[in-house]
Amino acid sequence: MHRDSEFDPQDFLPYLLNQAAETLSLEFQRHYRGQYGMLRTEWRVLFHLGCYGEMTAKDICVRARLHKTKVSRAVAALQTRRFLTRRELERDRRHAVLQLTALGQKVFADLSRAAHAFDLKARAAMTPDEAEILHRCLIRIAGFETAQRTG
Amino acid sequence: MHRDSEFDPQDFLPYLLNQAAETLSLEFQRHYRGQYGMLRTEWRVLFHLGCYGEMTAKDICVRARLHKTKVSRAVAALQTRRFLTRRELERDRRHAVLQLTALGQKVFADLSRAAHAFDLKARAAMTPDEAEILHRCLIRIAGFETAQRTG
DNA sequence: GCTTGTTAGTTACATTCACAACCAATAGTT
DNA sequence: AACTATTGGTTGTGAATGTAACTAACAAGC
Predict the structure, then answer these.
(1) What is the domain partition of chain A in residue ranges?
(2) Which chain A residues in 26-65 sit with Cβ < 7 A of strand C?
(3) Mean pLDDT per 10-residue interval, chain A, length 151 residues
(4) What burial class does residue B60 get, using C-beta atoms within 10 Å of its C-beta: 0-12 exposed, 13-18 middle, 19+ buried?
(5) What is the radius of gyration, based on Cα positions, of chain B?
(6) What's the whole-number mean pLDDT along residues B83-90?
(7) CB contacts < 8 Å between A and B, how many?
(8) Domain A15-142 belongs in CATH node 1.10.260.40
């Protein structure tokens, strides 16, 4: 029935990673999408602003590895919802520093809590050793090694 | 400068998984996209047909966890490129069994080889133990545990 | 036969995305 | 000052996606 199996899709790392990522992402979606009607990119931008404090759109592009158009649109959406404000710099009016409003911070706090709980639940399916190795491998694959942490 | 760090995006499993998956997927894209102008979904459909032999669109939906509309469109695209043929069943004309053409099989063989090499290269960045644990964890997260293997 | 329900697959439409072109502000060169 | 390059960010357009509505084939009950 089937060809000599060169190898199984499940053994192909990009495929397996995508399935795993999709599974968790779809599950967590219900928090930011269901509760706040946010898109994935918007949640990411909010998440980064909440975690790292105020920064420019460009900073978010680099940190979150998002294309500037996606960030631009996500920021616009978050702004109309009063989740963040933009403040232009006088020394260089091309930059606009983004900052969560009180409302945005409340939403971030809520989602951050949910995210943390979600993370713990996910890790509960493995031993601490496994969780640590998984984390290490993913960091390496994503290329987060030395970069990112320094900001 | 930044808020009390509840936790870092890099510690949030869905995010980290997505970044890792995106990194590898984008890298491998150049094979099926660069060489054959295929889309991700098309590559997946081809991959599944090549690995498991002829099957219906529905089967692919279940195995590859793709929505039927995506499969429908991918199949149409692969068909116009003469990568596969569809054969209706007389006993139930709703079903159409899909099957790679000789050309499709050649493309599959090529991409399959590339995929295997890619996979080896990716795993070379870890120890065998790490690779095995990573695989195990991802299978578990993706929910491939008992399902999928049985066909 | 005729209705109702289910399943395999396609089509239509509205949203989202990728990519390129664009604009405005700054920096560098002459 | 004028000319070009670069950078931060936005906008416009076609391609890709998600969701729902749809068609066609079968199945079951009457």
Answers:
(1) 15-142
(2) 39-41
(3) 68 97 96 95 97 96 97 97 94 93 97 96 96 97 72 39
(4) buried
(5) 18
(6) 93
(7) 184
(8) no
